[in-house]
Amino acid sequence: MAKRNSRVDQKKDNIQSRLLGTNVNEINIEKFRDPEEKKSKYNLHGKLNEKLLKTISNKFTTDVIFNLNLMNQELTNIQALELCTHLVNLNLKGNNISDLQPISNCVDIVYLDIMDNNIISLEPLKKCEKLVSLHAEGNKITSTKSLQGLDNCKNLRTLYLKTLSGEYQNPICEAFNYRDTIFQVVPALQRLDGIPKKVQLDNGEGLIKEQKPLDLQLSNQPWFSSNMDKFNEKNQNSKINGEEQLKSDLKDCKSKISQLEAKLRAVMVDLK
């Protein structure tokens, strides 16, 4: 019975494989999962040191740590990351970090996520010339001065300072001409907050410049009075035209009656 079930399952797999064009037994579903959906296998409770870095990365030395996911670990101090000089992908989302200086020497970093922290300046990233994508939504960046250093990131193409929903953003996002200003500060940037550089958002400035004063002169009469005047005038004209037509019709009738009377008199004379 077990062998029969095994053959049935194998037959189903073969059918699915032909439909999908691949061997379903070789599909690794983990490749298609969102990395943020994977639950961390560890909880650092705000602590980070060289030993922990080796443990969570399963590496014997910090020099060969290329990827680190330290999301939601209650971190405030990331001094130990200065040992990971060859980091390429680093996720620090959802911590309490205020200073990025420890990763200033991570010159090989390409993807960096520092969303939902307490960071006030991105200046320490000025040496990260290989940086391509930076998520910095939900921090405390207040001005372009806080962005100094990003102009040196010649490969930076994507920058997030706020989410599209507005739930996570920085104070600088409320500034006038925010998008134009950021693109000027970071010339290499091609996409800001998920929106391409070439897309011009209408912030209403053009409407303000082109607005014209409205003539709101109000009459003492109700809104329907002018229409009522037109209505009365039309009725008056109709009344006058009707009376003239009636007089004309009566005149015609009298004329025809007179003609009939004349004919009757002529007939009476002949009969006599």
From TrEMBL:
Keywords: Coiled coil, Leucine-rich repeat, Repeat. Gene3D superfamilies: Ribonuclease Inhibitor (3.80.10.10). The keyword Membrane does not apply. SUPFAM superfamilies: L domain-like (SSF52058). Residues 243-270 form a coiled coil. PANTHER family: LEUCINE-RICH REPEAT AND IQ DOMAIN-CONTAINING PROTEIN 1-RELATED, LEUCINE-RICH REPEAT-CONTAINING PROTEIN 9. This is Leucine-rich repeat. It comes from Pseudocohnilembus persalinus.
